[in-house]
Design brief:
The structure is a single chain. The chain is α/β, with parallel strands linked by helices. The protein is 48% helix and 13% strand. The protein has 2 domains: 225 residues, NAD(P)-binding Rossmann-like Domain (Rossmann fold, 3-Layer(aba) Sandwich); 35 residues, no CATH class. It is built from 10 helices and 7 strands. α3 links the parallel β1 and β2. α3 packs across α10.
């Protein structure tokens, strides 16, 4: 007789997000199996927020993960937590994505550990808020290096390994600002669109190699960065942070901020064979916030 799994014993996991809920489903026999077992995935900017949730979602699917962030202690702790929760193979690497040498080392260490790279998730955070008058040449250059050039370098580094493996998946995390420019976000509005153009071109160039390239656009996802933006708007408007938050949520059709795990679900799906006919796409995960048709 098949033993029935009792959800009540892991009720706290269900309430804490989809990645943890995936652990429950693994106990039930892998009901959410996306065919990612053993795949080697690099997730950048993964010590916290969306990146960390994404790394954990891949771990639940039994992929092998390389996590990286600028602060060694943070990414090491995040990796240890994910290993303990999921039993997955997780490599923790300190890296500054504005440094070409660090990017080469991420890929080298991943290939050394896992033999290849099957999946790349480009998540470099975002440039600082501000208007055109606020920004110096140095800030424009820094935003270019963080947002666009890091993507170029990472893709260049992983493509040879994906070609040898017979294919791969590249997912770029950007922002709904590429569809609807955001107030006080001149750097993001300007430079992120370059990543979208790059990804569309790559999806055409790399299709013959069975390498798929897609973009995911987070909307109002409750991360540390989102909290910082709410605090900045609070300071400028004179409203409390809670008032700013309620106003922001009132403009989201689904009426709330999203959670990092909800975004991670989309990323993991796009990396899987369930999405093997999807390339060159730009997918919003924003609760309906962006009103653009395309």
């Amino acid at each position: 007789m098949t033993q029935q799994y009792d959800f009540r014993q892991d009720q706290h996991l269900v309430l804490n997000g989809s990645a943890q809920a995936g652990i429950i489903l693994m106990k039930m026999g892998g009901a959410m199996d996306l065919g990612l077992k053993g795949r080697a995935a690099i997730v950048t900017g993964s010590s916290r927020g969306i990146g960390r949730a994404t790394a954990e979602a891949f771990a639940v699917e039994r992929a092998r993960i390389s996590m990286c962030a600028r602060t060694a202690a943070d990414v090491t702790q995040a990796a240890e937590t994910i290993r303990a929760r999921t039993g997955a193979q997780v490599l923790a690497l300190r890296a500054d994505l504005t440094q070409a040498g660090d990017i080469q080392e991420i890929v080298r260490r991943t290939v050394e550990a896992y033999g290849t790279v099957d999946i790349l998730v480009n998540n470099a955070g975002g440039p600082p808020a501000g208007t055109f008058d606020d920004m110096t040449d140095a800030e424009w250059q820094a935003a270019f290096e963080l947002t666009l050039l890091s993507t170029v370098r990472l893709v260049r580094a992983v493509i040879p390994h994906m070609r040898r493996a017979g294919g791969g998946a590249i997912i770029n995390l950007q922002s709904t600002s590429v569809k609807v420019p955001l107030d006080n976000m001149i750097l993001s509005n300007s430079i992120r669109t370059g990543v979208i153009g790059l990804a569309k071109s790559l999806s055409l160039e790399l299709a013959k190699d069975n390498i798929r390239v897609n973009n995911v656009l987070p909307g109002a996802i409750m991360t540390d960065r989102q909290r910082q933006m709410l605090a900045l708007r609070s300071k400028k408007s004179g409203q409390t942070v809670e008032e700013v938050r309620r106003l922001r949520e009132s403009k989201i059709p689904l009426g709330r901020f999203g959670e990092p795990e909800e975004l991670a679900d989309m990323i993991v799906f796009l990396a899987s064979d369930r999405a093997k006919y999807v390339t060159g796409a730009t997918v919003q995960v924003d609760g309906g916030l962006a009103r653009s048709l395309m």
